[in-house]
Input
Amino acid sequence: MSSTTSNLNANPSDPYNRVSQTFPVLTDDQVERAKPFGTIHDYRKGTILFDRGERSVDFVIVLSGCIEIYEHVTEGTRVITVHEKNEFTGELDLFNGREILVGGRMGADGTVIRITRDQFKKLLASESDLSETILQAIILRRRGLIAHNQASVTIITSNHTADLLRIERFLKGNGYPLEIVDYNNDLAKPYVERYDIKEDDLPSVFLYNRNELLKKPGNLRLSQSLGLSEEIKEDHIYDVAIIGAGPAGLSAAVYAASEGLSTVLIESEAPGGQAGTSSKIENYLGFPLGISGEDLSGRAQVQAHKFGATIALPYVVESIDCESRPYKLSLDHHCRIQSRSIIIASGARYSKLNLPDEERFEGAGIYYAATAMEGDICKNEEVIVIGGGNSAGQAAVFLTRFSSHVHILIRREGLEATMSDYLIQRIKASGRISVHPYTEVTELRGGRALEEVTWKNNQTGETESRSIRHLFLMIGALPNTGFINSCVLLDKKGFVVTGQAAAESESWTLDRSPMMLETSIPAVFAVGDVRSGSTKRVASAVGEGAMAVSQLHQALVELAEMG
Output
């Protein structure tokens, strides 16, 4: 192992300090069992085996000599680690069609086993002990790259803006390493001078893989330039197209792909949905210490990719043609997907306050998620959380780590009817959280960012104005169903109707009734928060995603029989 990864402190959470797991040495027996899946090659020192930006690279095991894993930096390349005898290359992008983040070259003359992507999947399916060792290693390696800002992009910015939060959330949500450099810092000077960056160009993103600077890039431009977008096969007919990569959509993708169905998961931003922004979910089965939404969605992404699902992002589904067979989904940027079945898992979004200037302050004082990114922004300041559900409670408890005080504003008398008891007890026990019943915000003021908030007690009529610059909005739920138009039956609030109630639609033409999660169109299902009558909990969403896959098997058989 190179000095880059060996001279570290004793931080146990650093993946690079878990050497036996992050950089395991395979036994001679494991190497022998891997040989039939690949081909043996001799290479001279300096031979490039793969380089950053390539897709679908081979999995390589060292038999003799060594392989240097390097990143591209402004001065050329820098070695991250060195794999020696019986060690192997690879990290998370072995499982997907994205561009890889690092390069690999022979550090000495040697012999290696090269295993193609298809054979690599067969190896993991055939050898369970190898699969466990390899999977754990490649997950930890990506975490190491993120923790040490290796193979990263550099974001140049002067302050916290809505665009910075958007870019940072998009990259972190997709597990991409990044570093943030202040525009006025000496570290930013080479970029500023070379690319003539003005303050109006911020945030700007420097891409080492292309030696290119993007000024205020949108998510799609960023995704395409970084190779995060996976190929959408417009002529291919998928077995199932899943719209939305929240917990329900990710669950459906994992189960569908694991059962051999050709699966595409379409997401407009980053996988995780609202749950992906939760700081800690403590009532999810199997995690007594809690798990962050980011970790939960990250693990689910790995599982979906492992089983062969395609995650297409950042694409927006604009419409569904429910009359064609197979179904056709029209995406933005002139893309199209054909699929025999559809699972709508587009979720819901938080309602807004509908106050003047609210939109102007979004990302500059008004936030819809409470993660470490937002926490860093509001250190040692008072903040407001609006909402009485679990998301609001989780946000309030989490923000006490950063802010000086948290004000929870609710219109009801108390939290008992809408929030889990364990969160209510946490809030009551905290000396840095105040709950304001019967209260709503009436005015927002500020220049380029939020500076002052006025709220009113609707029982007493008293108003109060405070110099608070950060407001977290977590109220209500509006379904993300604008793309559906009249394709499937919706209830009065816009949520998708499923099951027996969906049979009332004129578009239902089969003799049988719709299955529990099936909509008014055969083989089109709805799961999670977007479904009418669903329980708005992560566990429920995950369960519905799995259940929908079991039901769509029957629907696919019926459609095949109908021709």
In short: The CA atoms of residues 52 and 101 lie 5 Å apart. The mean pLDDT is 92. The first strand starts at residue 39 and ends at 43. The chain has 14 helices and 26 strands.
